[in-house]
Amino acid sequence: MSNEIPRQTPSSAEPAEILVGIDGTSASEAAVRHAIALAREQRCRVRLVHVVPQVTTSAGSPGAEDLLDRGRELLAHAVEQARATGPGIDVRKTLVVGQRIPELAQASRQAALVVLGRREHKHLGRIATGATAAALASQTTCPVRVVPSGWTSDPTAKDVVVGIKEAATAGPLIERGLELAHEYGGTLVLVHTWQLPSAYADVFSRDDLADWNAQAAVELAAAAKPAHRRFPEVRLQFVVSPGRPAEVLAERSAAAAVVLVGRHGRNRVFPHLGHVPRAVVQSGAAAVEVGPAERAPAFDLELERAGTLLK
After folding, report:
1. Is the whole-model pTM more than 0.85?
2. For 160-293, which CATH superfamily applies?
3. Is the pLDDT of residue 268 over 80?
4. Which of 17, 62, 173, 302 is at a distance of 20 to 30 A from 232, taking alpha carbons?
5. Which CATH number fits the domain 17-148, given the four candidates 3.30.70.2970, 3.60.20.10, 3.40.50.2300, 3.40.50.620?
């Protein structure tokens, strides 16, 4: 397996660091396996972070030392697993007390990638993981990757699937997808879906729908062209079809190395995760990475020229 860790900005002299959120579950064990596999390929280090919950009552913080002791045990077990899985990998650890999302976000400031595990056995566990990834992605600048609890390295999985909502704003996401596809040696699959309400399904002819699909594929190709010049060896595949976006991406994830979804950054102080990316994070069969925010389109705000209204 090969994969590319984004460049770190703090110091080019420092090796790239992958941060793994540890919670003592089998899901975080899968996250550790994934991070170690990446670190082995990229020769970077891994930092395991566990956040001990802070319980405060009117009587103060009863049992704080007991909680700390348990946190140390969980982190020590994760470090042992990481070092056994990746002998020679530089594995470091951080134990903090507080709220999980803010503490992980703070710890990720020097990271190139954050990896979380996703619980599979409980529906509520999947929802919680999606919420954690969404909240963390809104507070980090590096990608956040969510790994299914049963993840194992599969050398035959090489393709990178990218969910595209709007081609005009997807440049950063496509560029990240090309980087990953280059490192995996696979195809970059750009997926765009659309759906009409059932009451309108018979308004347009099959030829109309085929024209829509063809035009969307042309727009995807145009959006990919600038970044594709850097990675001309990467094969591109455009998938444009009607359907529910989350379902199509989840289906495509079955044979993918990574599924890449974007954050919405338009008109927001912090990018956020929409309902489709969140659903893919909760149900994807492959690792799902929340990548760069969408680039806001350039708006033409010129309304008047020489005393004449233009709009």
Report:
1. no
2. HUPs (3.40.50.620)
3. no
4. 17
5. 3.40.50.620
